[in-house]
Amino acid sequence: MSYVYDTENIFAKILRGEIPNNTVLETDHTLAFEDIRPHAPVHILVIPKGAYVTYDHFAAEASDEEILDFTRAVAKICKTAGITADEAAGCRFISNAGEHGMQEVPHMHVHILGGRPLGRLVDPA
Ligand code: 5GP
N or C: which end of the chain has fewer CB within 10 A? Predict the structure, then answer.
């Protein structure tokens, strides 16, 4: 893969502590914090601490330990936020990538959205 990581992206600055955030969960390899412009009552961003640009980049190149840590963090966040589909009303996971995905911040992240009905996944073209 030939992804090039921009070390000056906003999430890299958050990870370095240069920009504040409302942290929801921090683990060895993962940070989760509230989105600054929430689209739903629950809108949490989950990012790996490693330098990955997109989800596919992370999935291809992160270590097993990083992937496990990230995945388990997502589960904990949903449970804590009370938005799992088994015990509550469910949620949505989104990971935008690149131009067509309209990714704004080029550091891999998953949006977790919940707390209201979220409509259809995408607008018909
Ligand atoms: P993307 O379009 O890349 O998938 O989403 C990037 C998200 O990052 C957006 O939902 C945007 O509101 C959020 N965001 C951008 N800058 C900041 C920031 O400085 N702090 C936080 N907490 N969220 C941010």
Answer: C
